[in-house]
Design a protein that fits this description.
Layout: E1 7-9, H1 10-13, E2 17-19, E3 25-35, E4 44-52, E5 56-61, E6 65-68, E7 73-75, E8 90-92, H2 93-97, E9 101-104, E10 110-120, E11 126-135, E12 150-154, E13 158-160, H3 170-175, H4 181-188, H5 193-202, H6 205-212, H7 217-225, H8 229-238, H9 241-249, H10 253-262, H11 265-275, H12 282-285, E14 292-293, H13 299-306, E15 318-322, E16 333-338, H14 339-343, E17 362-363, H15 368-377, E18 382-386, E19 392-397, H16 398-405
Parallel strand pairs: 2-7, 14-15, 17-18
Antiparallel strand pairs: 1-10, 2-3, 3-4, 3-8, 4-5, 4-11, 6-7, 9-10, 9-13, 10-11, 11-12, 15-16, 18-19
């Protein structure tokens, strides 16, 4: 790397593409790793965390960087693609330093770190030399408000609080707002339990519900247990009922019942019904809220329903036609109208004339093996599930099925490590 001294601010680097020497994109910068050098001494930046294709985060040492500025980052291309793991005294700037409280040594009070500046030394090393802080700052998870004026100070002009002290997460959440829930969940898995809970408390309920659904079950339990009981119930309400049921099944029965009692009755009823099914059955696997319409509904109405951004692609692939009531368990199940048929039909056409009556629904007590065989045989994205009275009680989607069939550690699995056997409620 060039030995001409230069300065970069970490917040401005986040999301920048990292290239190899011939211009091929390696990935995107997500964090910087620093190592403390003692009280008052500027931390040493030892590397960067890069999100490579496949959404895996890897460590690139600063010695492998040939150029770094506010527009792009270039490395040698010799990168170890093993998943990044924080070690020893290493600290993540975005994950650990941002939002940390500091005490100003001039006696003027406390502040919160919002950014840091790194200066390249003449020997090529990078040191954290400056903090961009907000004095007397405070944040609100609900409104995102900030107060207090900002300062750019030398690293030695402030003393960071202990890592054991409570810490905000406004900067972390803001810098990762572009991530899909699964990728945000990956970022959380690099953190300590304490830091994960701090970040979780900063997220809006709906966002936290989506992220938690992408975490391993034990991490979901840890996060939910770190929230106050009313907030935990609010987050469960935002989760898909099948995901909420899986999570509650991993909690002590008394705790699960306490949370269910705090949830809205309609939301709690859906979850309670799922919890009644034995493990390994379609009922335990399904979602109880597919798109359901009567045969008198029109193609235009159906298309309006499947356009909802709250629907997964798998659930949006089919309309389930039933007699009233249209809430599960419904009246008599009549059949399915597939999205392709909707797209080929006139908007005023009645759904009852388009029903695929050849698709047999599965029993809510059918085994996972039976469900996977049926979905694979007919190339289905979703399969209707009925009870013994022929009423629709839900649908198993292809993503539900994959969660069941994949090994329990698939979210954190490395290509060179053995897979674990299935386990948990779905196993």
């Amino acid at each position: 790397m060039s030995t001409n001294p230069q300065r970069v601010f970490v917040a401005r680097l986040l999301g920048l593409d990292v290239f190899d020497p011939i211009g091929d994109r390696l990935g995107r910068l997500r964090d910087v790793v620093v190592l403390g050098r003692g009280p008052g001494a500027s931390p040493h930046a030892v590397g960067i965390v890069v999100e490579v294709p496949g959404k895996k985060r890897v460590f690139v040492p600063m010695t492998r960087l040939t150029s770094m500025d506010q527009s792009q980052i270039i490395c040698t291309g010799l990168v170890n693609l093993r998943r990044f793991e924080q070690r020893g005294a290493e600290q993540l700037v975005v994950g650990g330093l941002f939002d940390r409280r500091v005490t100003l040594v001039d006696g003027s009070g406390a502040a919160v770190i919002e950014d840091i500046a790194m200066d390249q030394q003449r020997n090529g090393d990078w040191l954290v030399t400056k903090m961009f802080v907000r004095r007397g700052g405070s944040t609100s998870r609900l409104r995102g408000l900030r107060r207090g004026h900002t300062l750019l100070i030398d690293w030695a002009d402030a003393l960071p609080d202990s890592a054991l002290e409570p810490q905000g997460a406004t900067q972390f959440v803001a810098s990762h707002e572009d991530l899909k829930p699964a990728d945000f969940a990956d970022a959380l898995q690099e953190m300590s339990d304490k830091r994960r809970i701090e970040v979780a408390r900063e997220l809006q309920d709906e966002r936290l519900a989506d992220v938690m659904s992408e975490l391993p079950e034990e991490d979901q339990v840890t996060l939910l247990s770190g929230l106050d009981i009313e907030r935990a119930a609010d987050v469960l309400e935002e989760m898909d009922p099948d995901d909420a049921a899986d999570l509650l099944a991993d909690l002590p029965a008394a705790k699960a019942e306490e949370l269910l009692a705090l949830m809205e009755p309609d939301e709690a009823d859906d979850v309670r019904r799922l919890l009644q099914y034995p493990e390994g059955t379609a009922g335990a696997l399904m979602t109880p809220v597919p798109v359901i319409l009567p045969p008198e509904g029109t193609v235009a109405e159906a298309l309006a329903h499947v356009r909802s951004e709250d629907l997964s692609p798998a659930l949006a692939s089919a309309i389930f036609i039933c007699r009233p009531p249209l809430e599960t368990p419904t009246g008599r199940f009549l059949g399915v109208v597939h999205i392709q048929q909707l797209l080929r039909s006139a908007p005023p056409e009645l759904l009852g004339t388009l029903v695929d009556k050849n698709l047999e629904p599965a029993s809510d007590h059918a085994s996972v093996s039976e469900i996977s065989h049926a979905m694979a045989s007919y190339n289905l994205n979703s399969l209707p599930i009925v009870n013994r009275e022929g009423r629709l009680v839900g649908a198993v989607t292809v993503d539900d099925l994959l969660d069941q069939l994949l090994p329990e550690d698939w979210r954190s699995h490395e290509d060179d490590t053995p897979l674990k056997n299935q386990g948990g409620r779905r196993g």
